[in-house]
Amino acid sequence: MSGLRILVPVKRVIDYAVKPRVNKSQTAIETTGVKHSLNPFDELSIEEAIRLRERALPVSDILALSAGPAKSADVLRTAMAMGADRSIHVQVDTEKEGDLEPLTVAKLLAKVVAEEDRNVVILGKQSIDDDAHQTGQMLAGLLGWSQATQASKVEVEKEGSTVTVKREVDGGTETLRAKLPIVITTDLRLNEPRYASLPNIMKAKKKPMIKKTMEDYGIDIKRRFKTVKVVEPAPRQGGGKVEDVDGMIGKLKELGAL
Amino acid sequence: MASSSRPFMRALARSTVRTPKLSACEPLDITDIPPTPITHLSETEALMKDQVSKFASEVILPKSREMDEAEKMDPEIIEQCFEQGLMGIEIPEEYGGAGMNFTAAIVAIEELARVDPSVSVMTDVHNTLVNTAILKYGSEKTKKDWLPQLATNTIGSFCLSEPISGSDAFALKTRATKQPDGSYLLSGSKMWITNSLEAGFFLVFANLDPSAGYKGISAFLLPRDTPGFAIAKKEKKLGIKASSTCVITLDDVHLPASALLGREGEGYKYAIGLLNEGRIGIAAQMTGLALGAWENAARYVWNDRRQFGKLVGEFQGMQHQLAQAYTEIQAARGLVYNAARKKEAGEEFVADAAMAKLFSSQVAGRVSGSAIEWMGGMGFVREGLAEKYWRDSKIGAIYEGTSNIQLTTIAKLLQKEYTG
C-alpha cells in the first residue's frame, strides 16, 4: 500500500461535561452510570486524518483502534461514522485489570503499526481521564520515529513524504518538518471536529470492526504503578470583596503582598 | 443530563386497544425478540441521538434566542440540518437519505426539541409528513424526482388546513379540476402551513370531485416556482416563532398529470395515515421540549440560585415538584417510544399515537410552565430560554389534531373495543 496509512488510536472516557467524582474506596474516579464518550483530543485526531484525505492527499487507509471494555466499540463506531475506514477493538476488561498504562498502550500501538504497516499515527496528546500525556511520545520512542506533539496545524506535501507541523509552545509557535513515518499528537486548536451525519452513521454499520485481545499482540497488561489514593482537590476558599482601591491596598498589605 | 437509559413507566405505555390488523408498511418481525425497556435504543439510534444532541446544543442553541426574536429560521441552520442528514432520516440511501428507521426520526425530533422546538418542527413536518408521503404513496418516478432533493436541499411543506377547515380537515374547499389533456388546475387557499416560507416543495390537498365529498380529495406535488402559487401572509405567533407559518394562495395553478400523488380520490386516506404517524413526531417534539425546559430549570436551581443560605433546589417543596415533573416526562416518553415501536412493528398504533400526543403536549405545557416558576425572575425574562419553552409548548395542544380531537379518536377506538 502506498500513500498515507494512518492509525488513529481512540479512547472511551467520561464525557467532558460530566463532573468527575471519586469513588467511595478512593481508588479511582466513579465510572458506573456516568455518561462516556470519545476522548475530545481523539476526535481531533480522526478529524485531522479525514481532512488530510479531503485535501486530496494520497490517504490509502484510516484505521481507528481502541483498547478497552466492550463499550469501547461505541467510540470506534463514532470514529467510523466520522470517516475512519475500519477499526480494531482490542478487548480489555478494565473493570478487572484496571486502566491500561501509557507504556502498555504504546507497546500495543507499536505492534499494530508493524502488523498493519502504518506510516502515520495521529493521536490525542492526552486522554481527559488520566491526563497522562505520554503515549504518543513513548510510541515514537519505541518505533524510533519522528514525533510532533501538540500539533495546531498539520501539512503534508502532495507527494506525501514530508510533514510540516506547527505546535504551540510557551511564547509562540514552533514549526517542525519531518519525513515519514511520524507520530503526531493533536492539540485543541488543530481543527473543529465534525458531527457524524445520519447517512454516515448508517454507512459505519457496514465498516469492519475486528475484535482482538492483548494476548493476540503478545502484550503484558500488568500494571507497573499502583494507585495509592485518589482524592478530590480541596474546595477553593471563596474570595472576599473590597469596597475600594484603599481597601484593596490594605488587604494586599495585610497578606504581605505589598 | 437525562438519557434514554433512565427508568421509565412501562405500565402507562400499554395501550388498552389492541387489534391484530397490520398496517401497509413493511413490518419488523419482533415476535422472537425478548422484551427490552421501551426506551432502549439500538446502537445506531444511540449514536445518532448522541450526535444530534451535540449538534443541537453546540450549533443550534447559540442561535435559538436570536431566531425566536427575529421570528426567522437562520438559513445556515437549515443548510446544516441538510448536511447532517436530518432532512432525509427515513429516505433510503439510494435516494440520498440516511435510510434510518421511524424511531430514529422520533429520537432526532426529540433531541432537536430539547434545544429548539422550532427547528424540531421544521424537521418533523419535513420528515414524517412530506418525505413519508412520497415514500409511501409516490410512484418510482416521483421518488426519483423528489426524494434526492428533499434529502439534500429542498424543504417540504404539508398543505391540508384551510381558513374554514382545521379539525374538520376534509371540509377543505381548494378545488382541483382535471383538464382534457389529463393535467390539473388548482384553485383555493391554504392556512397554517408550516415551513411554507422556506419550502421548495408543497404537498397540496385539493378536492377533485366535491360531489363525492371527502372521497374527492386528492394529493398533488407542487414545486414552489409554479405560476399561480403565492405566499399571502406570514403569521405572527405566540411560540415556535422561528418556524414559518403562512397563508398560501393557489390561483389557477397548472400542474401536469404526473403531479398527482398516488391515485385520484385517495388523498384523504393518505392524509389520515400520515397524520396518524405524524402525531408521534409531535409527541416527540413535546417530550423533548418538556425535557429541555426541565433540565434548564434543574441546572439553575441545583447549581446557581441560593436563598436562605442554600440552593433553592434543596428545599423539599422544590425537590418534590422537580421529581413529579420528571416522572411525568418519563411517562410521556414511554407513550411516545411505545407508539413509535408499535408503528415500526406494523402493529395498530392509532390510539397509542393519539394518547402520546395528547399526554406529551399536556406534560410539556405543565412542566415548562412550572419551570418558569422554579426559576423565579430568571424564568420570566427573555434572557434565558425558560419562557420560550413555555410559549413553544402551547402549539402542542393545537396542531396535527387538537387535544380534543385526540380525545375523540381515543374514545372512539375504546368504545369500539368495549361495545358488545
From TrEMBL, chain A:
It is found in: Mitochondrion matrix. Its cofactor is FAD; AMP. The keyword Transport applies. One of its GO terms (molecular function) is electron transfer activity. SUPFAM superfamilies: Adenine nucleotide alpha hydrolases-like (SSF52402). Residues 26-221 form the Electron transfer flavoprotein alpha/beta-subunit N-terminal domain. Binds 1 FAD per dimer. Binds 1 AMP per subunit. Keywords: Electron transport, Mitochondrion, Transport. Its main location: mitochondrion. One of its GO terms (biological process) is amino acid catabolic process. One of its GO terms (cellular component) is mitochondrial matrix. It comes from the Eukaryota. PROSITE patterns: ETF_BETA. Belongs to the ETF beta-subunit/FixA family. The electron transfer flavoprotein serves as a specific electron acceptor for several dehydrogenases, including five acyl-CoA dehydrogenases, glutaryl-CoA and sarcosine dehydrogenase. It transfers the electrons to the main mitochondrial respiratory chain via ETF-ubiquinone oxidoreductase (ETF dehydrogenase). Heterodimer of an alpha and a beta subunit. This is Probable electron transfer flavoprotein subunit beta. It comes from Viridothelium virens (Speckled blister lichen).
From TrEMBL, chain B:
Its EC number is 1.3.8.5. One of its GO terms (biological process) is fatty acid metabolic process. It holds the Pfam family Acyl-CoA_dh_M. Pathway: Lipid metabolism; mitochondrial fatty acid beta-oxidation; Amino-acid degradation; L-isoleucine degradation. Residues 265-412 form the Acyl-CoA dehydrogenase/oxidase C-terminal domain. One of its GO terms (cellular component) is mitochondrial matrix. Belongs to the acyl-CoA dehydrogenase family. InterPro entries: Acyl-CoA_DH_CS, Acyl-CoA_Oxase/DH_mid-dom, Acyl-CoA_Oxase/DH_mid-dom_sf, AcylCo_DH-like_C, AcylCo_DH/oxidase_C, AcylCoA_DH/ox_N, AcylCoA_DH/ox_N_sf, AcylCoA_DH/oxidase_NM_dom_sf. It catalyses: 2-methylpropanoyl-CoA + oxidized [electron-transfer flavoprotein] + H(+) = 2-methylpropenoyl-CoA + reduced [electron-transfer flavoprotein]; (2S)-2-methylbutanoyl-CoA + oxidized [electron-transfer flavoprotein] + H(+) = (2E)-2-methylbut-2-enoyl-CoA + reduced [electron-transfer flavoprotein]; valproyl-CoA + oxidized [electron-transfer flavoprotein] + H(+) = (2E)-2-propylpent-2-enoyl-CoA + reduced [electron-transfer flavoprotein]; hexanoyl-CoA + oxidized [electron-transfer flavoprotein] + H(+) = (2E)-hexenoyl-CoA + reduced [electron-transfer flavoprotein]. It is found in: Mitochondrion matrix. The keyword Phosphoprotein applies. GO terms for molecular function: flavin adenine dinucleotide binding; short-chain 2-methyl fatty acyl-CoA dehydrogenase activity. Its cofactor is FAD. This is Short/branched chain specific acyl-CoA dehydrogenase, mitochondrial. Homotetramer. Keywords: Acetylation, FAD, Fatty acid metabolism, Flavoprotein, Lipid metabolism, Mitochondrion, Oxidoreductase, Phosphoprotein, Transit peptide. Residues 157-253 form the Acyl-CoA oxidase/dehydrogenase middle domain. Residues 42-152 form the Acyl-CoA dehydrogenase/oxidase N-terminal domain. SUPFAM superfamilies: Acyl-CoA dehydrogenase C-terminal domain-like, Acyl-CoA dehydrogenase NM domain-like. It comes from Viridothelium virens.
